[in-house]
Design brief:
- The chain is α/β, with parallel strands linked by helices and about 130 residues long.
- The protein has one domain: Response regulator (Rossmann fold).
- It has five helices and four strands.
- Strands 2-1-3-4 form a four-stranded parallel β-sheet.
- Strand 1, helix 1 and strand 2 form a beta-alpha-beta unit.
- The two termini are about 15 Å apart.
């Protein structure tokens, strides 16, 4: 099972949205991968707008601080709006240039979903190529 960690500063919006969509799509496609959402300085609650959008399929119940174990156990670490020192390790991918959800939720959501769909397709192709 491949482990993906999405991390953003507050662990309340972008990482949760990405992780939730990732888990949903991976499950639909039978991809053996699971995502978690983390924050480097977590908020107290997940964004209400994200909670409304994702509903019961949230990948986290509340924002959780990124730990060294999360980084060490991740097959893939994807950072939103963070620099390497915030993570304690280089991210495998940086999705820093995406629109903020707070400015235009629909635009930011579409950008995140597009990246997640592309990532799922990449991981699915890798998994299928490794199958006998």
């Amino acid at each position: 099972m491949k482990s993906v960690v999405f991390v953003c500063p507050h662990g309340a919006a972008k990482s949760v949205l990405a992780g939730s969509y990732f888990n949903h799509l991976a499950s639909q496609l039978g991809l053996e991968a699971r995502a978690i959402a983390r924050g480097t300085d977590p908020d107290a609650e997940i964004s209400e707008r994200v909670r409304q959008d994702v509903g019961r399929a949230l990948c986290a119940e509340r924002p959780t601080k990124l730990t060294d174990a999360d980084v060490e156990n991740a097959d893939l670490l994807i950072a939103f709006d963070l620099a390497e020192p915030d993570l304690g390790s280089p991210a495998d991918r940086n999705w820093n240039e995406l629109p903020p959800l707070s400015a235009d939720f629909a635009l930011g959501r579409a950008a995140i979903l597009g990246r997640v769909v592309a990532l799922i397709a990449e991981l699915k192709a890798e998994a299928d190529a490794g199958s006998p």
